[in-house]
Amino acid sequence: MTMSPVQTSAPRTPTGTGIARWPGRLLDALTSPVNPDRYLELLGPMRVVNEARAQVVGIRHQTPDTVTLTLRANRAWRGHQAGQHVRLSVEIDGVRHTRCYSPANAGIVAGRGGRLIEVTARHHEDGVVTPMLKAGLGAGDLVYLARAGQGDFVLPEQRPERVLLISGGSGITPVMSMLRTLAAERHDGEIVFLHYARDRENELYRSELAELEASTPGLKVVVVHTRPTGTSDLRGYFSAEHLEKVAPWFTDAPAWLCGPATLTESVLELYGERGLSDLLTVEHFSLDIDEPSTEGATGTITFSASGISVPNSGATILNQAEAAGLTLEYGCRMGLCHGCLQLKHSGTVRNHVTGETRSDQDQEVWTCVGVPVGDVDIHV
Fold it and tell me: Which candidate, 326, 379, 377, places its Cα nearest to that of 348?
């Protein structure tokens, strides 16, 4: 299929791999504990076998406020299932920052996953990572990957005869992966892809969706512009009329949804009113999470591996750890990925988003949304 032109620049030499740095790096590797990656990295940063990494091989800007990166992963990458997310890390001023993105390329097909990964990110002016992705990376630059995240937002192994995919804005990426996967598998059922964009200028994957519709029997692509000045056949925000017009069989078919809060709430409400909630699988790509109340917080939070104990302030474990001077891994900071999981030795932790409490000993908890209830011991 024909993709939009890829903008590339001359490959960069990854920092620290120049000949002048070899003697020091070689001495460091030879005097450090045995780790094959320490030696393999001397031959090139992509040679390591225990850490998934990728190099930027293509950059394009589909809309004014997004960037689409094509990445070539090393052999440590095991691929992803359509709909899953991946934790992607970049180094900024010597500090590694991690965020979650849903690959838009096809997932594992016929038991095999490719080494090319495509991610599309919307630029946030006050962000840390997205400005780097949009303007700070060039061809040959290195990014770090973690294994694809687990979750329910995946296609079942037995593909349904009818599939409804709904997305809005940059929430298109995981459902785009599903569509590409079904197309690669030559799915012979019926697929409706319903996408909401502000206007034509802000449509992601416009040309490819048109090509997929033309080449995939049974596929119907419907793009809806939400702005009054839009030029699409359907306009405005999601409604029952939209769904009944494009997929009148939606009451008997599974659906997957990823988009902004307004779209998600509208679809959830419709499916709830009609008793169809079990047919709908939702991926929240952003959440508005208020800070937990610190009123009435009691006990002590102990970071046993670091030998640090502090009075429980009532904030999340992650925030309290950072306030204590510790650096913990995290991904989304919204309780969606597994990037912040840490082992809790003892105590009770409440999930600030769901309200669920966990009190068993030696179990993993999400530190980004986990709030200590009384004394808690975290292995950090």
Answer: 377
